[in-house]
């Protein structure tokens, strides 16, 4: 193992990739910087691999955890980078393709490889999952534990990228797709492009999963995905912002506005220049440095546009903002998930994301040949469905991993089920 790791470090070409004993916030950790001239590398190229610092193996009951820094593409279609964290289970599950053997006569199992998208919903780089998970109180990590206990290898990308571009769909989708390529190419034990690969996310993670699915055929047609599962995908960010304004979840809005415009410097400059002067200015901008949990507490119940912007909603939807909203906030316009089956699940009474928007998206994809299984849960709301919908997603993922999918689900067309 140690020998393999040294070989790997040599191979990737970085002498100085020593792992610090304790984790350092990404904004301060020099490891979170790409090499010079990284721009010319192809998307998915691995720049750095290290064993994750600290004790994530204890916290998540797994055998090893790696960080991988790789090349991806931002919402302006310019080169950027991102980091993913790969969790190796204590005991690998197997899949039909596990019969393949690798060199040196080793019987190499091909355990399922899940890319799981944590809804970190923050404009702070230091809330990226590769660092956030050291805080044992981080919410919504149960799905990661479930997947590891099934013997799945799990990659958790920081899909918002180096600017923590919460709600920027193109950036997020690209970072997810390139994280899959990077894990396959990182030359880590028992994982390469022969492991069946699938993607799963809920809420903010469903947004990233949805964008990855939609962008795959054009951006990463080389990737063979067994399936994509998305729960309560945020099909239309604007619609969600209207719905959460004045509610306990209003704290999603400031990081969303800052995250989206982090991909559009002119739009961000405009937005910030239209903040009301005085203490509310600082209060709004503090959203750049806080986690989801903190933002939810700080902005709870507020009417965000009228509290913070000189011209209220007119600033938020000004012509200067049009490209950002147009390109990055609505699914259904960048492609169709044609190349793998898709599972969608959502609460019929989801108060955060509109189930009608999701149904319209599914209909749009289905009209041109996608294969989608959509379960609408008649019980519970957005946060309840995160828990209640997980077993259905795990069952579906298990079927695409073990090859029983076509016996258990309709393998063509679209099926909508109310459960
Ligand atoms: C290791 O993880 C546990 C949670 O499982 C945490 O309570 C503890 O403080 C961590 N120890 C170190 C040294 O980081
Ligand atoms: C860790 O996983 C092993 C194997 O699945 C299990 O036996 C053990 O109880 C788990 N430990 C914790 C602390 O969850
Ligand atoms: C997104 O939602 C907003 C607010 O409900 C609506 O005005 C807009 O037309 C929607 N955009 C698309 C592309 O459906
Ligand atoms: C807050 O975030 C901004 C922008 O990301 C950064 O420039 C600044 O250094 C951060 N402040 C603190 C105290 O971390």
UniProtKB/TrEMBL annotation:
One of its GO terms (biological process) is lipid catabolic process. GO terms for molecular function: triacylglycerol lipase activity. Residues 1-17 form the signal peptide. Belongs to the AB hydrolase superfamily. Lipase family. The keyword Signal applies. Gene3D superfamilies: 1.10.260.130, alpha/beta hydrolase (3.40.50.1820). It comes from Podospora didyma. This is Lipase. It comes from the Eukaryota. Keywords: Hydrolase, Signal.
């Amino acid at each position: 193992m140690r020998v393999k790791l040294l070989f790997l470090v040599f191979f990737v070409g970085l002498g100085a990739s020593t792992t610090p004993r304790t984790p350092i916030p990404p904004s301060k950790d020099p490891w979170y910087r790409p090499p010079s001239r990284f721009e010319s590398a192809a998307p998915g190229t691995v720049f750095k691999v290290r064993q994750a610092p600290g004790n994530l193996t204890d916290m998540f009951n797994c055998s090893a955890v790696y960080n991988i820094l790789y090349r991806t593409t931002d919402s302006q279609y310019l080169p950027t980078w991102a980091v993913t964290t790969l969790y190796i289970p204590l005991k690998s599950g197997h899949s039909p393709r596990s019969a393949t053997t690798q060199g040196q006569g080793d019987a190499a199992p091909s355990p399922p490889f899940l890319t799981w998208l944590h809804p970190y919903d923050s404009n702070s780089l230091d809330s990226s999952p590769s660092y956030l998970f050291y805080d044992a109180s981080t919410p919504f990590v149960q799905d990661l534990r479930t997947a590891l206990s099934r013997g799945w290898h799990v990659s958790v990308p920081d899909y918002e990228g180096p600017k923590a571009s919460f709600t920027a769909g193109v950036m997020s989708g690209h970072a997810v797709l390139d994280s899959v390529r990077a894990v396959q190419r990182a030359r880590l034990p028992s994982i390469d492009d022969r492991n069946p690969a699938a993607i799963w996310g809920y809420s903010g993670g469903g947004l990233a999963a949805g964008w990855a699915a939609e962008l795959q055929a054009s951006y990463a047609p080389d990737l063979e995905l067994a399936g994509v599962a998305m729960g309560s995908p945020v099909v239309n960010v604007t619609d969600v912002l209207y719905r959460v304004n004045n509610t306990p979840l209003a704290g999603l809005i400031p990081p969303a506005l800052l995250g989206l415009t982090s991909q559009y410097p002119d739009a961000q400059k405009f937005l910030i220049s239209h903040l009301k002067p005085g203490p509310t200015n600082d209060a709004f901008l503090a959203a750049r440095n806080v986690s989801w949990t903190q933002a939810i507490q700080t902005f709870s119940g507020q009417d965000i546009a009228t509290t913070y912007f000189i011209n209220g909603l007119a600033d938020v939807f000004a012509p200067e903002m049009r490209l950002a909203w147009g390109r990055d906030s609505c699914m259904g316009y960048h492609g169709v998930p044609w190349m793998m089956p898709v599972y969608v699940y959502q609460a019929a009474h989801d108060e955060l994301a509109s189930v009608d928007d999701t149904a319209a998206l599914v209909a749009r994809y289905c009209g041109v040949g996608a294969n989608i299984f959509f379960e609408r849960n008649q019980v519970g709301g957005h946060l309840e469905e995160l828990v209640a919908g997980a077993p259905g997603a795990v069952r579906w993922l298990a079927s695409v991993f073990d090859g029983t999918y076509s016996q258990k689900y309709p393998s063509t067309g679209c099926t909508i089920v109310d459960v």
